[in-house]
Amino acid sequence: MVESIDARGAARAVFFTVVIVAVYSAIYMILMRYEGRSELAHPMNAVYWVVMTITTVGYGDIVFSSSLGRLFSIVVSLSGIALVFAFVLPGIVTPWFEHLGRELPERVPEWMSGHILICGYGPMVERLTERLDEMGIEFAIVESRESVARSIFKRYITVWGDPSDVQVLRNANISTARMVMVNYTDEVNADVILTIREVSRVEIIAMVEDLRHSRFLSYAGASRVLSPKTMLGTFVAQISNPSCGECIFPGAVQLFGTLSLVEVPVLPGSPLSEREISDPLLIQTGAAIAGLWKRGEFMPRPAGTERISTGSVVLAVGDSEQLMRLRSLGAGDEMEKRFLVVGYGDVGQRLVRVLCEHGVVPVVVDRRDLATDRFEHVRGDGYSEDVLVRAGVKEATCIMIMLNNDHDAIYATLVARNLNPDAFIIARANHLKTTEKLYRAGADYVASVPMVASKMLLNMITPESEDLTILYEGLELRRYEVRRRSHMARRTLRELALIERFGCAVVAINRAGDALLSLSGETEVLPGDVLILLGPPGSMDRFSRVFGDGG
């Protein structure tokens, strides 16, 4: 069966047809015996008569003589028409003809130039392609797998073919491409890179699965080799334990001057727990609270009466000293922390290495025998309740679930949350669609491999002065200059009601080089101000439709 056809729809149509034929055949044999014509009440005759009648062919060699039999013949004929038009045509025939009419493209448009070429579509670049499309940056995808190519060619410019074939690369206008990204296995990537180097000196960004293979991809001709999984492991270590980052704030976004926007998790035992946003303890740090994450739900510019609970993540704006004070409060007493790492794959190994380098020795759960004395190891499945209990899940302050399989990660999160309702749980997601499920399962923070990969790649593609910055779980940060004739000028934030109208918030204002962080409803927006706006993509689009892109 061709992959593009809806297999479930076809299976349902076939199953329903078989059931109808079987039921009608049984009734046929009963009615033939009722008429005293037992010699015709044979299963083969029954199936033959039902099929001929349903398809309205009706050769007439077998007919009923009784009124009841003729009434049954009418029912079968009418239901046959309904069966063909309701199930067979839409479930099997129509999809087949639609497939025949959809030929996969094998080259990009001739006019395409200066584009990003992505070799290999998958979860690692899924978010990147969405963002490039939203930002209007031209790109094309070269994909060798037919099923994958068919799933994306209507949304993005796609070339179906093997990128290790020179002609396929030429069909993708490799000679005029701005940059190439390769995103297959390390072995296939090496083959593709060597082929690209035969015909072009274009910049090549290689996504590596195993960091040990980096040098081989460089030998093949890659300009830069990226390991999102390694970066993710470092990120998780730094965000879960401030001593790993020291003065480094993972995922920080530079705003203007010395100001940055960072995430600060509130771990068990933190003095921030159950305090209001307006509490003097937070105000004394000097940092401004731009938003609050609670199990995946984001609140921009939370009200002063909003309480910070254990497991929430504060989005804060400030300079390094202010943010370090806030992060110290969020971490609480480090002496009482107990770390549990579930899964020792690529991400888990990097995470454990960074923790150990900074004097934090976690307990590691993995189904393999790790044979190491650097940390305590409990062998077994990371989603097993007994294994997690033996690993000390009930006493853990921070549980980091770094399993390779998203289904296993969801189940492990459910089990861990049930065993330890108070722990701060960080879970890894390999697919964007898994993020929401992990939050529902009980994760406090979801570290997404596609989000990390897309952020790394976008930093290479877009200039540093780009007004739109990708941020965390689908949030966007926009810099907006208020010009003299802007409808925003000389109006207060309360009058503008950006949160209520658009779902975005002003988190900081740059006024002639001075940073305004202590914003309230009475803060007036003046011409020349540069606003830092924060919100999901949809809210930014609604804002731009009303106020434009630059005043």
Describe this structure as you would to a colleague.
With 551 residues, this protein is an alpha/beta fold. It is built from 20 helices and 26 strands. The strands form 6 sheets. It has a 6-stranded parallel beta sheet, with helices on both faces. Strands 16-15-14-17-18-19 form a 6-stranded parallel beta sheet, with helices on both faces. A 5-stranded antiparallel beta sheet has the order 7-8-13-10-11, covered by helices on one side. The N terminus is likely disordered.
Helix and strand layout, with pairings?
Elements (H helix, E strand, L loop, with lengths): L6 H28 L8 H12 L12 H34 L15 E4 L3 H13 L3 E5 L2 H7 L5 E3 L5 H6 L7 E4 L3 H14 L3 E5 L6 H7 L3 E3 L1 H13 L1 H4 L7 E2 L5 E6 L9 E2 L3 H4 L4 E7 L2 E4 L6 E2 L4 E6 L1 H12 L7 E4 L3 H12 L5 E4 L9 E4 L5 H6 L7 E4 L4 H14 L4 E6 L4 H8 L3 E4 H13 L6 E4 L3 E7 L9 E2 H4 L1 H5 L2 E7 L2 E3 L7 E2 L4 E6 L1 H11 L4
Parallel strand pairs: 1-2, 1-4, 2-3, 4-5, 5-6, 14-15, 14-17, 15-16, 17-18, 18-19
Antiparallel strand pairs: 7-8, 8-13, 9-12, 10-11, 10-13, 20-21, 21-26, 22-25, 23-24, 23-26
